[in-house]
Sequence to fold (436 residues):
Amino acid sequence: MTSGTLLLEARQVTQRFRLPNGQVLEALRDVSLSVCEHEVVALVGPSGCGKSTLLRLFAGLARPVDGAVLYRGQPLEGVLAAAAMVFQSFALLPWLTVAENVAMGLEARGVDGPARRDAVARAINLVGLDGFEQAYPKELSGGMKQRVGFARALAVAPEILLMDEPFGALDPLTAENLRSQVVDLWRDPATGVNTLVVVTHSVEEAVFLAGRIVVFGSNPGHVREELENALPYPRQERSPEFEDMVDRLHAILTATLLPEPVPTAPQRLVPFPRVHVSEVTGLLDHLLTRPGGKGPVFELAEDLGVDYDRMSAVVRAAEQLGWVTTPGEVVQLMPAGREVMAMDDAARKDATRARLAKQPLFARVVAMLKESEGAVEDEEVLADLTIYFPFIPADSLFGTIVEWGRYAELLDHDADAGRLSLLGLPEGSAETRGEA
Fold:
């Protein structure tokens, strides 16, 4: 626990639920955790380890079957008025405007008249949604919807902001922008928020946000380890110090997920965005028509008639393959992107195969196939993906690997047999030259 005034505390908390089939599920067992004023605490761990359950106990939305939850040293009775929650699912009512959704928490607390209008206006201004007060959720992008969720929480001027995977439904670029804004809100005395507790499935997100990271184990949920993060704010995600902290946390988390301890934790991988080949080539083709081969993400999304969030994922895939670069919100076509679009189909597949073989996730799958004499069972790959990316649906990620691998004639998949096989490697690779 860090120094400072003790704000929230779970003392030897155990929580159980009775399932519809009558079975009793123990979500948490003997969990003790303290949160101090002016802290940002991140809760990470595998699915089903009780992170969200503990967050709800802190909010007073449930009571533990054993142990106690305290606020400023006093047992918590009912909903904690000093806290507000932000959810992954946005939780907006589609028939209400932005302003009406933001006002919901105030209405529940009996705030009315000018005081409510002022609080709503202030919260909307804090999250940068001025001008959208009368818009409905269906008219907003995913990032804007989540900003409404934050505004609704900030409207009640909470001392504590509890966030349950608040960026999990957003594309990487939108999530990155909102994470930075959340840190700014926490550091701004005008917001009234002095403490954050966030449940996240992202190692990078935990390192970016938190000063203390709590790693949970499962079956049942328990605190396995705590990691202090002394990196100064604002944090630079591409700095060596940030990467070192990410690697440390990833090693701890991976060891938590593996059934048995291993001498060396698996190398941290980067998931490939779940987008189609045609979407990436369509982006490159469009960039060729733009002056300088560049443009802001939101303009590209508008030009191509796709959702901003989807376009951001397409951009991220093209960037991983070295075909574009993204300084800020601008997407710039790289020479390699121009070259691949000038090729015929066969040459383009060869070039894509070479790029995929260097992408960490595809390189991992190729290594598995080589170790298994060129073929491996689907279940083995899915199990591997689950270990590396426990919070991304393995089936969806596997489908993306198959699509891109087939297109580049790197991999093939027999759905009936449930087997993935290696087709070929790019010319000039160590494997094709026969090097060890």
About this structure: Residues 256-267, 428-436 have pLDDT under 50 and may be disordered. The domain at 277-341 is CATH 1.10.10.10 (Arc Repressor Mutant, subunit A). Residues 107 and 113 are 10 Å apart (CA to CA).
